[in-house]
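Deliverable D2.4 — example input (structure tokens):
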């Protein structure tokens, strides 16, 4: 195994935003397995799609033999990171943070191999909870310049609205985490979102000062969609990795509805498919690009929820919206169903509608109220205003939208109401 190829793979896939010392880091990675860490925020009981850049970066590193440490911020979560936040976050109890961490490790196990020490998960409360304040200030705090800290963007933004002394300590605590992980596990590299750059620099500097050892930092780009939206956010809220919060079918639909401009880079970021297969996707259009979206959705769902869940989600999507033909030569390493995919319509409620009734067109609002799917036209209008009504894969924006037989796909018109409700109007 060529350990040094990890850096090149991260670069090819677009994971690298900033690196403290690129050439020495590449030399270190090439020498053999490197232990690295990524911080995980335990303030919720599930990760969401916004966390996936870091998770997939860890997975890529482990693929080339490097050892990930997922550090649950049980201690730092009780302080709160001001980076990217306009207000101080709500404090959680120690018990709630520990419970969240257990659930998050189960989710990470889909992406990382925790067997035989190949990856480990630790909680920084183990050392932060035992700190003696005076000793910490004397041994660690003396290495930090307040003047320098106040030049960082995270602190400058919060200074305008008020920065608590509690939050001002956050950078010291995260830097101390890096030092402890070096001492306990030989960790030489911290990876994280680009909003963590200042905190990462503080950690590498602290290790250099107190241990006379070079440590490194690498950040991932802060990802938005082609439309400028924050990654993992929809009109219905966050897209969670927990199937009880976001079902595998909803998760599949999130990815299959990606903007055309995002498909190739999302395949690079969020699937394990080889780059040699992904690179041609950026040149696809029309039906082939739509087929690539199905592959993206399938692979992303299989990683998070398992192969069986991905197959079920593909079958449900084929039943709801019609199957998309996946060419044999398109992303051939994928396990996506190709050709005629079995369609699972059993879970989608249905009712009949005569073709004659559709000949002159029927208002969608009338159709929904008549079949008892919504109670009134006012409710239909409110759902549309909230961005929650879909006809097929098209979001409905006009309360007067008329439905005709042209809206049918393979003998049925499919509507989605809100986040989870689907209904099929089968033509008879």
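Example output (designed residues):
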């Amino acid at each position: 195994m060529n350990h040094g190829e990890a850096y090149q793979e991260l670069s090819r896939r677009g994971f690298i935003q900033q690196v403290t010392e690129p050439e020495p880091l590449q030399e270190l990675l090439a020498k053999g397995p490197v232990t690295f860490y990524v911080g995980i925020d335990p303030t919720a009981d599930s990760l969401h799609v916004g966390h996936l850049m870091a998770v997939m970066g860890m997975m890529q590193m482990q693929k080339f033999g490097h050892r990930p440490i997922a550090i649950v911020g049980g201690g730092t979560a009780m302080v709160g990171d001001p980076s990217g936040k306009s207000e101080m976050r709500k404090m959680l109890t120690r018990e709630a943070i520990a419970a969240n961490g257990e659930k998050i490790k189960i989710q990470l196990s889909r992406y990382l191999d925790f067997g035989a020490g190949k990856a480990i998960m630790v909680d920084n409360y183990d050392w932060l909870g035992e700190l003696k304040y005076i000793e910490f200030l004397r041994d660690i705090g003396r290495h930090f310049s307040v003047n320098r800290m106040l030049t960082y963007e995270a602190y400058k933004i919060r200074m305008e609205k008020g920065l608590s002394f509690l939050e001002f300590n956050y950078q010291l605590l995260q830097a101390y985490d890096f030092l402890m992980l070096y001492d306990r596990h030989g960790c030489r590299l911290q990876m994280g979102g680009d909003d963590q750059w200042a905190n990462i620099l503080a950690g590498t500097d602290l290790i250099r000062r107190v241990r006379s050892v070079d440590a490194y930092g690498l950040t991932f780009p802060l990802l938005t969609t082609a439309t400028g939206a924050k990654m993992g956010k929809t009109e219905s809220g966050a897209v969670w990795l927990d199937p009880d919060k976001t079902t595998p079918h909803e998760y599949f639909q999130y990815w299959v509805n990606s903007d055309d401009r995002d498909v190739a880079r999302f395949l690079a970021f969020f699937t394990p498919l080889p780059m040699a297969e992904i690179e041609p996707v950026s040149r696809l259009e029309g039906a082939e690009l739509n087929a690539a979206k199905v592959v993206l959705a399938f692979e992303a769902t299989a990683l998070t929820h398992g192969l069986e869940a991905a197959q079920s989600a593909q079958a449900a999507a084929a039943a709801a919206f019609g199957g998309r033909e996946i060419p044999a030569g398109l992303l051939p390493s994928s396990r996506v169903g190709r050709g005629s995919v079995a369609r699972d319509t059993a879970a989608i409620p249905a009712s009949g509608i005569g073709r004659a009734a559709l000949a002159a067109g029927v208002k969608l609002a009338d159709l929904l109220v008549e079949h008892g799917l919504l109670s009134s036209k006012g409710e239909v209008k409110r759902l549309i205003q909230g961005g929650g009504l879909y006809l097929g894969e098209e979001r409905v924006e006009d309360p007067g939208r008329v439905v005709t037989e042209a809206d049918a796909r393979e003998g049925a018109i499919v509507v989605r109401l809100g986040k989870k409700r689907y209904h099929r109007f089968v033509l008879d």
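The longest strand covers residues 421-427.
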